[in-house]
Design goal:
Elements lengths: L4 H4 L9 H8 L3 E5 L4 E3 L7 E7 L1 E7 L5 E8 L3 E3 L5 E4 L3 E7 H10 L3 H25 L2 H14 L2 E4 L2 E4 L5 H8 L3 H14 L2 E4 L2 E4 L2 H8 L5
Antiparallel strand pairs: 1-8, 2-7, 3-6, 3-8, 4-5, 4-7, 9-10, 10-12, 11-12
Helix pairs in contact: 5-8, 6-7
Length: about 220
């Protein structure tokens, strides 16, 4: 990869000296994918660790009956491995760095303290998975949708004090697979919020005009 400066700004590698990053990652293969392109399939490229350099990746399960369930969304700086039965799809134009597992292992051996950073990243991933399971089991669909929008807003660009633009890149059907609902329910949910003036629906984006309302409705009932 030529532009190693991008990696220095990612959580996983931000604490490593530039010479170390150059030594281990400069030879790694970097690929760019167009929106909707499939990046990996079940147990494909299991000898690599994927690092999202830019863009957003949907990691999902696909079943023989055609149904899908989205496990997580990966943003710039996130990592994933091919040791699962999941698929990965670019939902916006994206760039992925393929880091050989052996290279990653050698890096950990040379810089043992790097393991703590890796543990932190894996811990965040596990926390997100637990939150997803908890949400599906215990929360109503509208609550799950509000919390989904809220989390996206926090990782997006603030426009004004209470306004955010969320470049979502997902269809309503794909959002439904994330929150465990149906496309019709998601359509109705967003249309009602638009009528309330809470948000504006655009092509591949949502402009949240009243973030305080989203934040309040996203709170758990016991908060």
């Amino acid at each position: 990869m030529k532009n190693l400066g991008k990696l220095q700004r990612k959580q996983l590698f931000s604490q490593l000296p530039v010479p170390i990053v150059t030594k281990y990652l400069s030879h790694c293969l970097s690929k760019k994918y167009k929106k909707k392109a499939e990046i990996f399939g079940p147990e494909e490229h299991s000898e690599y660790i994927y690092l999202v350099v830019s863009g957003r990746i949907r990691v999902y399960l696909r079943y023989p009956n055609g149904k899908e369930f989205t496990l997580t969304l990966l943003d710039a700086g996130d990592t994933y491995s091919g040791h699962t039965r999941a698929f990965g799809q670019a939902i916006v134009d994206s760039e992925i760095l393929f880091i050989p597992v052996e290279t990653f292992r050698n890096l950990l051996m040379e810089v043992p303290s790097f393991a703590m950073t890796v543990i932190g990243v894996l811990g965040d991933s596990l926390k997100n998975s637990i939150n997803t399971i908890e949400s599906l089991v215990f929360k109503e669909v509208n609550k799950r949708l509000y919390q989904f929008i809220y989390s996206l807003a926090l990782s997006s660009d603030r426009q004004e004090l209470h306004s955010f633009q969320v470049n979502i890149g997902l269809t309503h059907q794909q959002i439904a697979t994330i929150v465990g609902s149906t496309r019709q329910t998601v359509n109705t949910f967003f249309n009602n919020l638009q009528k309330e003036g809470v948000l504006i629906l655009g092509k591949d984006k949502i402009i949240i005009q009243k973030f305080d309302i989203i934040m309040e409705r996203a709170k758990d009932d016991d908060e």
